[in-house]
């Protein structure tokens, strides 16, 4: 995200990779878009595309961005492999005990898969999950 203040006011620029969006792969796109800005300091709500307080809104009232050329996505598959390892030094015990181990180690491997079946359907699969990733983790 990039912000700036100039003679025309405050602006913000957001970049969202096309690879993270799901849309039809037509050569020229028309997308619906709605932007709200609420400034509590002056009790102001600004929006584009505007509709009045007594009117109902929703996607049918959104503005349109026409002539967008998104191109074809070359990434239909994302694979994120992982390896988890652990080593423990255990408490001293009886060396004569055949089940006593001074050290304990283990390792696990797995992968997360994201496969774009169609422009509207994505397969998300996990092989041998590590349960360490949450929804807010960044996807590469």
What does this structure look like?
- By secondary structure, the protein is mainly β.
- The chain has 2 domains: 2-68, no CATH class; 77-127, no CATH class.
- The chain has strands spanning 2-6, 9-13, 29-33, 35-39, 44-48, 63-68, 77-89, 103-116, 122-127.
- The mean pLDDT is 81.
- It is built from no helices and 9 strands.
Sequence-ordered SSE layout with sheet pairings:
Layout: E1 2-6, E2 9-13, E3 29-33, E4 35-39, E5 44-48, E6 63-68, E7 77-89, E8 103-116, E9 122-127
Antiparallel strand pairs: 1-2, 3-6, 4-5, 7-8, 8-9
CA-based gyration radius? 26 Å
What sort of overall outline do the alpha carbons produce when their principal axes are compared? elongated
Query: Taking all residues together, what is the mean pLDDT?
Result: 81
What percent of residues are in strands? over 45%
Distance between the termini: 17 Å
Keywords, separated by commas or semicolons:
two-stranded antiparallel sheet, mainly beta, 140 residues, three-stranded antiparallel beta sheet, elongated
State the gist of this model:
The protein has strands at residues 2-6, 9-13, 29-33, 35-39, 44-48, 63-68, 77-89, 103-116, 122-127. By secondary structure, the chain is mainly beta.
């Amino acid at each position: 995200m990039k912000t700036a203040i100039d003679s025309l006011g405050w602006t913000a620029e957001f970049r969202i990779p096309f690879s993270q969006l799901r849309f039809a792969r037509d050569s020229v796109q028309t997308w619906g878009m709605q932007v709200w800005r609420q400034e509590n300091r002056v009790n102001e709500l600004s929006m584009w595309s505007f509709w009045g307080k007594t009117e109902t809104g929703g996607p049918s009232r959104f503005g349109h961005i026409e002539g967008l050329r998104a191109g074809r996505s070359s990434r239909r598959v994302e694979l994120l492999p992982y390896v988890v390892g652990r080593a423990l030094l255990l408490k001293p015990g009886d060396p004569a005990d055949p089940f006593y181990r001074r050290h304990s180690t283990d390792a696990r491997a797995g992968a997360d898969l994201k496969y774009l079946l169609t422009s509207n359907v994505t397969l998300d699969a996990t092989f041998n999950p590590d349960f360490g990733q949450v929804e807010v983790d960044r996807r590469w």
